[in-house]
Amino acid sequence: PGSRAIIATEESTFYQNHGWRKCTIVYLGASSLPSPQKSCPKIRCSKCDSSVICFMDYEWDSSVDYLFFRNNYPDFERLRPKLRKKKGSSAYACQCSSTSVTTQVAADKASLRWFCASH
């Protein structure tokens, strides 16, 4: 068997294999949280196979929909009309899903098909 270890940290639990780390639980974090409770730094969506982008101190407008992200992802200037400034919040999105968080949330609890792409 290869050298595979489970490493527990304050941030999350990681699998470490040959120098790569992978979160076992993908957490989304708000900009107001202290750094050990921040989100996974490299998230991908298993539904649209896109990287998840995050805008700190913003939240998504309630009118955002699937087509908006398909047409405007990942360009901040094109996404900006549906972003609202909100101190302490973070707006996450891929090409098919989005969410805004003000606390630490596990992606699977938010019904998102997002996973750690190793870091």
Strand-helix topology:
Blueprint: E1 4-8, E2 13-17, E3 20-23, E4 27-28, E5 43-45, E6 53-60, H1 66-72, H2 76-79, E7 83-93, E8 98-101, E9 105-106, E10 114-116
Question: How would you describe the overall organization of this protein?
Answer:
The chain has 119 residues and is mainly beta. 9% of the residues lie in helices and 39% in strands. It has helices at residues 66-72, 76-79; strands at residues 4-8, 13-17, 20-23, 27-28, 43-45, 53-60, 83-93, 98-101, 105-106, 114-116. The strands form four sheets. A three-stranded antiparallel β-sheet has the order 1-2-3, with no helix packed on it. β1 (4-8) and β2 (13-17) form a beta hairpin. The longest helix is centred in the middle third of the chain and has 7 residues, at 66-72. The model is unreliable at 1-15 (pLDDT under 50).
Features:
three-stranded antiparallel β-sheet, 39% strand, mainly beta, 119 residues, single chain, globular
Mean pLDDT: 82
Query: What percent of residues adopt helix (DSSP H or I)?
Result: under 10%
- Shape, please? globular
Indicate the structural class. Answer: mainly beta
Number of helices: 2
Encode the helix/strand succession as letters: EEEEEEHHEEEE
Head-to-tail CA distance between termini:
22 Å
Number of strands: 10
Largest sheet data: 3 strands, antiparallel
**Low-pLDDT runs:** 1-15
Q: Order of strands across the biggest sheet?
A: 1-2-3
**Rg over alpha carbons:** 15 Å
Hey, roughly how much beta strand do the residues contain? Answer: 35-45%
